């Protein structure tokens, strides 16, 4: 098992435990929970595609090539974009609840 595979197992376990606890603690509705699951899945899919693309690039061009580097950067950028989108979804779901928990009178 590679270090990346071990990290993937830890990330998956952490994501599942954290997600379930947050859903229970913050009373997340079914629709909000669906949006959170979609956001998580999109990030995982983007990460898997990025990894596959990078491995394919490494096999086809083992030596450095500037176009391969740019294509890997674009693939990594797609993961970043999906992660930013999931952060926005998480913030829309959880920030109002956190503000209510802390008794902050800010309307979002």
Task: Summarize, please.
With 108 residues, this protein is an all-alpha fold. The chain contains 3 helices and no strands. Helix 2 (30-60) packs antiparallel against helix 3.
What profile does the largest beta sheet have? Answer: none
The mean pLDDT is 85
- Share of helix among residues? over 70%
| Number of contiguous helices | 3
Structural class category: mainly alpha
How much beta, percentage-wise?
Answer: under 5%
The secondary-structure element order is HHH
Rounded to an integer in angstroms, the radius of gyration calculated over CA atoms is 18 Å
Number of strands: 0
* Overall 3D shape: elongated
Terminal-residue CA separation: 45 Å
What would you say this structure looks like, in words?
This protein has 108 residues and is mainly α. The chain is 83% helix and 0% strand. It is built from three helices and no strands. The protein has helices at residues 3-25, 30-60, 66-101. α2 (30-60) packs antiparallel against α3 (66-101). It starts with a helix and ends in a 7-residue tail after the last helix. 6% of the residues are buried. The model has no long low-confidence stretch (mean pLDDT 85).
């Amino acid at each position: 098992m590679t270090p990346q595979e071990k990290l993937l197992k830890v990330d998956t376990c952490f994501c599942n435990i954290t997600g379930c606890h947050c859903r229970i603690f913050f009373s997340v509705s079914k629709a909000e929970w669906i949006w959170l699951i979609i956001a998580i899945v999109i990030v995982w899919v983007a990460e898997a595609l990025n990894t596959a693309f990078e491995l394919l690039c490494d096999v086809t061009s083992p030596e450095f090539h500037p176009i391969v580097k740019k294509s890997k950067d674009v693939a990594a950028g797609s993961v970043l974009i999906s992660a930013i989108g999931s952060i926005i979804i998480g913030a829309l779901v959880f920030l109002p609840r956190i503000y209510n928990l802390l008794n902050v009178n800010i309307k979002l």
